[in-house]
Amino acid sequence: MRRFRDTNLGELLASARDRRPNGVLEPFKAYLNTRFTETQGQVSGTRLFQEIRERGYRGSRQVVRKHLAALRAGTAEPVRADIPSPRKITSWIMRPRDTLTESQDKRLLEVRLACPDITRACDLARTFADLVRHRRGFLLLEWICQAEQDAPKPMQGFAGFLRQDFDAVTAGLTLPWSSGVAEGHVNRVKTLKRAMYGRASFELLRTRILTQP
Prior knowledge:
Elements: H1 2-6, H2 9-25, H3 29-38, H4 45-54, H5 61-73, H6 86-94, H7 102-114, H8 116-134, H9 140-150, H10 153-164, H11 166-172, H12 180-195, H13 202-211
Helix pairs in contact: 4-5, 7-8, 8-9, 9-10
């Protein structure tokens, strides 16, 4: 707040103009740097501006010329690494590998090479997903032992919880039956009860449960 109070409007607008174009150009800096290197700097700003415009750039020509001048002077900032989000990495890990595109599989490989913990977590997560999909409960103990030995700490804790309820988890990964239907009915009863705000009698609740599908 002090900055906005003590700075005149002209300086604030100039600062905003200086910040915004850089953000617009950021996705295209890698391409500009590559083209600059390929041509040994013998490329005009107008030509590069036209090329990135065809690739979706919506900023001004002046920003491109400014970046090109920085490249020639050797003062250009390095391109920021395109780091995928944790959610995206998780989705790549949990999906079957044959459903990933070539680029997604390549990005996941880059992440695995950069972080040994993710590599181990990825292998164990995919193995566990295979146990669930194909009901291979007889392999659960082996998976737990592997996770407890060299997995990242969160996964070690998960393996410990599985060991505490080992028989039930093994049955869930082996038998074709599920408690999903019963849990669904329990949730329905709770929803009806909350909708009545506790003001109606048990008989009305019973009637609603029996009459509503």
